[in-house]
Design brief:
This protein has five helices and 13 strands. The chain has helices spanning about 5-15, 15-20, 35-55, 140-150, 190, and strands spanning about 60-75, 75-85, 90-100, 100-110, 115-120, 125, 155-165, 165-175, 195-200, 205-215, 225-235, 240-250, 250-265.
Length: about 280
């Protein structure tokens, strides 16, 4: 079992202990003053509770979601089928079969350096810029998005209760810090890795996540991405959203209605290989 898979289970099992004793949370590698550390620990408790709401006592190592999809890109509005796969280690891929032809996106975190590629109906593979690999590859599966951010090296900030899309939520922001500052002409690692979680105030199930993507040649230019989750259903003891909507620059890009979800089928890293 890899480290993140183990974290998915252990974090959920230990959430009640952390709620009683927040000081038991592991310290991150980022240097902070005492008040900042306490605030981050308390915020991590909220993420721990959200993970427990998602998986309970279940260990999740991989996921495969399949169903129907509507894709809207400018004047193109087409429908088809989608298959989404992810590993707890961070590998993820989406494969769409649309009226215009197939398209896919793969992000591979198994190698020493993360890599990714996308292809359209012509089947030609194009590399994904490195600065666009640092937010969330498994954007369609919030369990892995949260579990990875409960490991050391992440700064967790609780932005408090708010309303998001008319829903009462707890707003948590997570990012990674770099040991060295970025020059003015280069986006900070903290900014490129920032992901915001909007957790339903009643259930703590993720209602949405948001992050930024960027043009291939300009990591300083932000293009907002938001993914909304609803219609959670119990699958093998875990809560999985069966309705997923992905927005790009505040416009609906993908509307996914999941019809089948399976966990722990033994997906291997070879399913996420880059050409």
């Amino acid at each position: 079992m890899n480290q993140t898979s183990l974290l998915v289970r252990l974090s959920a099992l230990s959430v009640s202990f952390f709620l009683i004793n927040p000081n038991a949370l592991p310290a991150t590698r980022v240097h902070r003053n005492q008040s900042q550390t306490q605030a981050s620990s308390a915020s991590s408790v909220t993420l721990q509770a959200a993970l427990a709401a998602l998986v309970g006592n279940v260990t999740v190592t991989d996921v495969t979601l399949s169903g129907s999809v509507r894709r809207i890109a400018g004047s193109d509005d087409e429908s088809g089928t989608a298959t989404l796969k992810a590993l707890s280690s961070g590998d993820a891929r989406s494969d769409l079969s649309l009226s215009s032809g197939p398209s896919s996106e793969i992000q591979n975190f198994s190698a020493a350096t993360p890599a990714g590629e996308w292809s359209g109906p012509d089947g030609v593979a194009h590399p994904i810029a490195f600065h666009n690999l640092l937010a969330e590859p498994a954007w369609f599966f919030p369990t892995f998005a949260i579990a990875r951010r409960l490991s050391s090296g992440y700064t967790v900030t609780d932005l408090g209760p708010s309303t998001h899309n008319g829903q009462q939520v707890e707003h948590i922001s997570v990012s990674q810090n770099s040991a060295s500052p970025s020059p003015p002409s280069v986006p900070s690692f903290q900014h490129l890795t920032q992901v915001d979680f909007y957790l339903d105030s009643a259930t703590l199930l993720p209602a949405a996540i948001s992050f930024n993507t960027h043009p291939d040649n300009n990591g300083l230019a932000d293009i907002p991405v938001e993914v909304d989750f609803s219609d959670y259903r119990n699958v093998s003891g875990a809560q999985i959203p069966f309705h997923i909507q992905k927005f790009l620059n505040n416009s609906l890009l993908l509307d996914l209605q999941i019809q089948n979800a399976v966990l722990n089928t033994g997906l291997s890293a070879s399913s996420f290989s880059i050409q």
